[in-house]
């Protein structure tokens, strides 16, 4: 079973994503960037879903992605930007910042499943 780390500070959003994915994937939740870094040092993940606004100016999703890449290098899993920034130019912005994919909130189950199917091919 593929293992996904969802970095999300909103408990309700984390619960919803876990519920949507739990039948097909093992899902672990990190409520903020420092916990994410601790978990990626201890575990291997196939994918990270990274909320951008983690409620911490020091360690948002962009900074956390950078730190994960520094820690894991070539062993880093794909990292998906998960954000309420949903304008057409936002997707290009986050891909340019080094995310492997992008999905906007509110997350629709069919869109999320299609994205994961594509990434796990």
Structure characterization notes:
The protein has helices spanning 11-21, 33-42, 61-72, 88-96, 109-119, and strands at 2-7, 25-30, 47-51, 78-83, 101-104. The protein contains 5 helices and 5 strands, in the order βαβαβαβαβα. It is α/β, with parallel strands linked by helices. α2 (33-42) packs parallel to α3. Strands 2-1-3-4-5 form a 5-stranded parallel β-sheet, with helices on both faces.
Structural class: alpha/beta
Identify the overall geometry.
globular
Order of helices and strands: EHEHEHEHEH
Radius of gyration: 13 Å
Number of helical stretches of at least 4 residues: 5
Which regions are unreliable across 5 or more consecutive residues at pLDDT < 50? none
Strand ordering within the main sheet: 2-1-3-4-5
Q: Averaging pLDDT over every residue, what do you get? A: 95
- Strand segment count: 5
- N-to-C span: 14 Å
Give me some keywords for this one.
alpha/beta; five-stranded parallel sheet; 44% helix; 22% strand; 121 residues; 5 helices
């Amino acid at each position: 079973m593929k293992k996904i780390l969802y970095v999300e500070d909103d408990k309700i959003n984390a619960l919803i994503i876990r519920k949507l994915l739990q039948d097909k994937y093992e899902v672990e939740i990190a409520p903020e960037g420092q916990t994410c870094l601790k978990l990626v040092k201890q575990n291997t993940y196939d994918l990270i879903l990274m909320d951008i606004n983690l409620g911490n100016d020091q360690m948002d999703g962009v900074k956390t992605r950078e730190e994960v890449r520094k820690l894991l290098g070539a062993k880093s899993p794909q990292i998906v930007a998960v954000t309420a920034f949903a304008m057409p130019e936002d997707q290009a912005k986050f891909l340019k910042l080094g995310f492997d994919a992008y999905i906007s909130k509110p997350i629709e189950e069919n869109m999320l499943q299609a994205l994961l199917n594509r990434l796990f091919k």
